[in-house]
Structure formats: structure tokens, C-alpha cells
Amino acid sequence: MSNSLAVEGAVSFIAEVARPGQRIAAVETMIVDVPTTRRHRLSNTEISFQSYVIVRTALADGTIGYGEAATLGGPRWAEESVEAIKANIDAYLAPAIIGQSALDFEANNLAMQKAATRNNAARAGVDSALFDAAGKSLGLPVSQFLGGALRDRIEVLWALASGDAEQEIEEARAKLAAREHRRFKIKLGFHEPAEDMARLTRIVEALPDCEIVCDVNQAWTEATAIRYLPRLAELGIVLIEQPLRPGLSAATARIAARSKIPVMTDEAAFSGPEIVGQAVAAAGSVYSLKLVKSGGLLELKRAAGIAQACGMELYGGCLLETGIGAAAHLAVFSTLPRLEWGCEHFGPKIVKTDLTNGEILFQDFHIHCPKGPGLGISINEAALRQMARPR
Ligand code: MUC
Ligand code: MG
Q1: pTM above threshold 0.90
Q2: Spatial distance between the Cα atoms of 316 and 253, rounded to a whole number of angstroms
């Protein structure tokens, strides 16, 4: 046995002896398909329902915890699909941690990493459920396990992604009037660039006091970016997300050097070394944090530290999670010393029925971190049953 394994074993043993009630007794998974309020378009996929794997874990003391693994359009946004996530949790991740103490967060995540390569969304779903259960069992909010909360609300953006400018303007105005959102993200890349520019111009003119971010989801070439980024700058766009494909770091660095708008790295960096790679290549100056990229709550907090150490600013990204996944992100975001760009956890509002009972509030342009033990949420069991995919 290597030294590192000996240390992990010892830590597990101490937690197990001290708190046998927090032993992981069961991990169950269920696929749910949740309709969205409207069609949501990205450059490489579009959805009218969102699919998740909901993870339910039971501890020896009877406490139940929930986590969520999100996907977007099947294995399109990333390589994991709900079918693969469920199969890999059931066959590999759950057996690697059953019987361990839920309080051994690092050891459990390491055991899952050894059981299955990458599988970041799957691992994040299980990890979130363990944090929720551990917090509920001990009466502590999850943020307490992550260093303690520094904020209880975060500015939250809304994404406009139907592709129809008039509908998008109406939607944005309704969000403004409700004082829910005043910062918007426009998805680009599913239209020809010239058509997108006309759409964007119309939206910017109709929403003069709003901050606008654009996400291209990899659809542009370097030449397209060189041609259109000056127009985006003229329109006052504040951030441009993932304009080119991951792997095109040198080309992204060249456009970042010419651009008056900061470039945000999303799909191009999941792991710590990938974040460092983007920063060293000067291909991004803002990093989008997502559990499905990092694979767990402590890993997400480490990703934030790595990006910040490289000089990048932070943005709280999402994958249209329900209230379960949003709460897991908020637990981490609430503990970050800096989160310059706020977050985009509009997922609980874009699904027709959220899977939680409304503990997450959207007020005064902020998302409010739920209070209470664990992730601070409770589950809408009726909705969960209704939207569960038949086995
Ligand atoms: C992405 O690429 O950022 C998050 C919000 C949204 O509209 O799409 C997702 C994925
Ligand atoms: Mg993105």
C-alpha cells in the first residue's frame, strides 16, 4: 500500500469510529426529464426538456441526501449522457463508496476517481448527495464544510436563447419588470454570424441599461471572431464566452489579444491542468465554474483557486440545473473569496416545474443561497415521481 493510500485509510477509519451514523448505506439513481418553459438553443444542440440523473443517498442514521448530474441535449454539451451517468454510478461509483463515512469527502471523491475516469457530471451528482446528507445529518449547511459562507446572495443572469429577437426582448423585459434579472446572456452560433449580429443589435437597442454577455459555444472560426468581435465591442457586450473550439488555444489567444471584450473559458477547461493551460496560453481571462466540469464540490472550489492563482476572474456557470444542482453550486460559490461575474443559475426558473420546494429565491436581481442544513433544499417528491423516466 502506498503512503497516500495509508493516509486515506487512516482518515476513513477515524471518521467511521467517531461517527458511525454517517456511514453511506445506499446510493440510488433515477433519470428525470423535465420540460423547459421554452425552446433553448445552443450552437450545437437545442432542448425543450432537460434530462438529469437524480442521486439519492441514505446514511446509516437514516438521513437522506440528494444530488443532481446535469446534461444538455444528450451527450452534446459534454460527452456524458444521462444513460451513461446512471449506468456508471450504479456499476462503479456507488460500489466504490458504500460503507465509507460520508464525512470523508476527499477520500470518497478519490475513490470515485479511481473507479471511473473523468465521469465528472456523474461524480459531481454523487458528491453533492453526500454533502447534502452529511450536512443534514449533522445539522450544518454544506458551506460550513467548504470554509463557511462569505455571501448569502449572488447577482444572477438570465439566458436568452430562443433565437427570435422579439420573443427574447419580451422575455427580458418581463424579467426586468419582476426585478429578477438585469444581466442577460445571448446564445450565438446557431444562426449565421450576420443574422446573429442583426438579432443582437435589436436586443441591445431594446435593453439599453442591461449588461449583455454572449456565448458562442465553439461555433466560430478565428476569422469569424476577428470579423465580428469589434461589432460586439461597439454594442457594449461585456464578455464573450467560448468563441472557438477547445484545443484552438493559440487561435483563441490571438483573438483575445485583439479583443476589447474579455474572453471567458467554458468548454475548453474542465480539469486543473486545462485551466492552467488556457491561462498560460492567454486564451481566457475569465473562467466559468461548473460542477459537471470539476466533478465535485471541493474540486469546484479548487478549480476556482487554480483559475484565480492564474489571474483569471470567476463566473458562476450552470448547465440549467434544477434547484438541487443550483443549491450545490451556491454552497461552493457562497464560500469563494471573489466571484467577480456573479452567476447564471437560472435553471430552477427555466424548467416548468422545479424539483425543489421553492427554497431558492430570485429577488432584486440576485439568487439567494438557501439556508438550512445540507444543501438547504427539500424535494418536490410529486414532481420527481411524475417526471421520472420509466425504468
Ligand atoms: C453553457 O455553455 O454555458 C449554460 C447556460 C446556457 O444557456 O447554456 C449553458 C451551457
Ligand atoms: Mg458556455
Answers
A1: yes
A2: 22
